[in-house]
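Practice problem: predict the structure.
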Amino acid sequence: MSISAEGHHQVALLAQKGSTGVAYTVRGGASSRRLDADFGALGRVHIRFRLKPEPFSPSLFRGKSCRFARLLFFGGRFHGEVEFAGEPEVAGVNARSGRVDLVRYRKRACKHEHRREGSARPQSSGKQNDEALREVDFFSAEAQPEGRSVSLNLIRAAESGTGSPATLYIASLTETAARVRIVRSAVGNTRSEVLRLGKRGAEPTTATIELPAPFSGSASYAAEPGAPPSWSGDLAVALPGAVAVPLTGIGFNAGLCRSFSSGDPGVCTGSLAGRSPEEVGEFGR
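Answer:
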């Protein structure tokens, strides 16, 4: 379990075990001296820091570009009150002291940066692009039942001569309890055939998804010309604090972008139709 803050007002408590985790985020107060956050019935955090600068390897941040950020590292201890009651399937925690790491980000100012923005960037030849060509497929399904948001995303990438394609997958359930934003998720990657696609270029565009634990069941997607795409099956995921979350059913919108490379722009179907495969790929990353 860890506590983090981004900026001065967003405070998050993250509980993680293996491939699953749950993040509780609330508006609080954070500085280089203290962190305060009230998670309501879930608990509270009121801690003070004792920090000092820590060295780091300059080789990690080499570069003369003015676009490089200046990162300042501090480390030390916290003292105070950390009380978290937990939820079903999520452990609680009570602590009075522990380790603290702080990173300050300062963007370097660029003199005459406006001139550099207009500078031409070197362009790679078509042959070089083909040599680095990767075939990528992106699948997305999402729904918003009863004020919550459920999503499933998969990205499958393959390069000629590298063997089985690699697939990254993530499922999440987002909800709000009082003032606390709660995101429960499961993420993983594999070279197993968890995303099976229909024959490239064939109609209808199809996909079958079957993922390892904590997922169960399977689901099928099909998009025929002139008809709404179908997304059906019994695919579900067990998340911390949510035993079985269905990933198919009424209210889900699903879409698929297939084989979008510079050599073959591919096609997007379903809820992703109308967007270029390149746009979907940027969103997936």
